[in-house]
Amino acid sequence: MTPEELLQIGDRVVADARPGESVECVVTWSTDTEVRAYDGEIEAFTSANAAGVGVRVVDGHRQGFAYCGTLDEADIRAALDDARDNATFATVDPHAGIALPDGVALPVLDLGDDRLVAFPTESKLALALELEARVRSIDSRIFGVDSIDYSDSYAIGAVISTAGIRTASVESAASLVAYVLAAEGDDVTTGFGFSVGRHPDDLDVERCAADAVMRAVRMIGAAPMASERLTVIFDPWVTAQFIGIVADVFSADSVIKGRSLFADRLGENVAAECVTLVDDASDPRHWGATDSDAEGLATRRTTLIGAGTAEAFLHDSRSARMMGTASTGSAVRHGFQSTPSPGAQAVLLEPGTRSPEELLAMVGNGVLVQEVSGMHSGVNPVSGDFSTGIEGVRIRNGEMAEPIREVTIGSTLQRMLTEVVAVGNDLEFFPMEAAGVSLAIGDVTVSGEEP
Predict the structure, then answer these.
(1) Does the pLDDT of residue 450 top 70, yes or no?
(2) What's the pLDDT score for residue 376?
(3) Is the full-model pTM beyond 0.70?
(4) What is the 3-state secondary structure (H, E, C) of the chain?
(5) What's the sign of the alpha-carbon dihedral 55, 59, 61, 62?
(6) Distance CA 390, CA 447 (A)
(7) Distance (Å, rounded) from C-alpha 102 to C-alpha 116?
(8) What is the per-residue pLDDT across 161-209, written as a single tens digit (0 to 9) for each?
(9) CA 175, CA 432: separation in Å to the nearest integer?
(10) What is the mean pLDDT of residues 311-331?
(11) For residues 436 and 371, what is the distance between their CA atoms, to the nearest angstrom?
(12) pLDDT at 377 exceeding the cut of 90
């Protein structure tokens, strides 16, 4: 398939709009590969194409939606008819409607590497096997692997509407992920590492393996620590998860539903001055980068927190109409099977100037957090209450000391943002909606063993 072929499919759908109807058509096609290696052999291999069409019809402020998992013309026609029928049963919504062009030009991004389509299957299998062999060779304490995975995707998406939106994009991605097991005596630990890129040639087997082994071996001998209030440093992986939660609170959908602790705080100081949090899917470095959002509007940089001040929420066209503002090009979908809603696409904290080693020295006495458990379930987006289990390494005299686990950290999102001591310079991009950087946060309650 080509972008133009998908656009032509959408053209035929919107051409059948009836007088007074607004019609939006989303068309997707992808080819995906997944490989799993174990014990020197390929344990699992899948390669498949997928396609689908989602149709949204708005008529008289009533919205209907339907989809089909095929590009067959008859099925697409049935989806349009179903969407039209569903609209007749929908509740009147004065804010319902498709996105209107806003004059913002699409960013010019190079996110699709056409070479991926022709990359040999044998080479994909070899990458997974090479990663497993490398993991097992680095340290004698690595006694096994939980999983060694290679995956890639080459995807085309298009949005076409009666409002005049007509855009298509191509995006490719490849990744290696290793989950390993380390042991010394009866003490068993786990660690992970990964490498991502737009093409398999971008992947770094050595880095992926080394990170997984380091994370596993570093936790051997870990034990609880005494409860204490101190400064913690989130490593980039943990920070990415943390700021992903913060960004969710800035979704206009959360604000409208009364689930955002920053609902009435635009223009107020909500974080330390060193905190600038942005969502920018037009930044090609991000895994979530794309030139247009799920409604076909251009992606753009939106500053959520600028130098500590809450500046903006993330909007799609409906939330913008509800709140009397403009879309930020932040409509997201869970594939062609869903309607759009506002959300983060590519979040990062603007990096600081200190290296991870300099952060350790600055903190002096604290905890380096390398993994968290249940972060999303441990955070209340309304009250901001934050409590999650962690594992990591104790910091003493500015250096890493003994590993710790079976420990919980607690605070609130509001307090943690205002207590940010420093942002590191080690920006790293992950296969998720947020990038990461080392982040030092003061006055956090660490709950472990009681004396």
Answers:
(1) no
(2) 72
(3) yes
(4) CCHHHHHHHHHHHHCCCCCCCEEEEEEEEEEEEEEEEECCEEEEEEEEEEEEEEEEEEECCEEEEEEECCCCHHHHHHHHHHHHHHHHHCCCCCCCCCCCCCCCCCCCCCCCCCHHHHCCHHHHHHHHHHHHHHHHHHCCCEEEEEEEEEEEEEEEEEEEECCCCEEEEEEEEEEEEEEEEEEECCEEEEEEEEEEECCHHHCCHHHHHHHHHHHHHHCCCCECCECEEEEEEECHHHHHHHHHHHHHHCEHHHHHCCCCCCCCCCCCECCCCCCCEEEECCCCCCCCCCCECCCCCECCEEEEEECCEECCCECCHHHHHHHCCCCCCCEECCCCCCCCEECCCCEEECCCCECHHHHHHHHCCEEEEEEEECCCCCECCCCCEEEEEEEEEEEECCEEEEEEEEEEEEEEHHHHHHCEEEEECCCECCCCCECECCEEEEEEEEECECC
(5) negative
(6) 10
(7) 34
(8) 999 999 999 999 999 999 999 999 989 999 999 999 999 999 999 999 9
(9) 12
(10) 97
(11) 13
(12) no
Q: Could you count the other beta carbons within 10 Å of the beta carbon of residue 406? A: 13
Q: Is 117 exposed, middle or buried (0-12, 13-18, 19+ CB in 10 A)?
A: exposed
Least confident of 146-160, 295-309, 366-380, 391-405: 366-380
- Structure tokens, 352: 């600081």
pLDDT given at position 233:
98
Which residues neighbour 338 within 8 Å (Cβ) at sequence distance 6 or greater?
54
CA distance 22 to 19: 9
Partners of residue 234 on adjacent β-strands: 369, 439
Termini Cα distance of the chain = 65
Tokens of 47: 């390669």
pLDDT at 375 over 90: no
Cβ pair 320, 297 in contact under 8 A: no
Count other Cβ atoms within 10 Å, centred on residue 85: 12
Nearest C-alpha neighbor of 112 from the set 30, 169, 50:
169
What value, to the nearest 5°, has the Cα angle with vertex 20 and ends 326 and 339? 50
Residues 167 and 4 sit within 8 Å (Cβ to Cβ): no
Geometric angle at alpha carbon 181, from 178 and 183, rounded to 5°: 155
Q: Are 416 and 239 in contact (CB under 8 A)?
A: no
- Contact yes or no for 296/159 (Cβ under 8 A): yes
Residue with tokens 């903006």, as numbered in its chain? 312
Residues paired with 25 in a beta bridge: 55, 160
Contact 128, 148 (CB under 8 A): yes
Considering only CA atoms, which of 271, 269, 253 is closest in space to residue 323? Answer: 253
Query: Do 58 and 22 meet the contact criterion of CB atoms below 8 Å apart?
Result: yes
List, in sequence order, every residue forming a beta bridge with 309; answer none if it has no partner: 269, 306
Sign of CA pseudo-dihedral 75, 80, 84, 86: positive
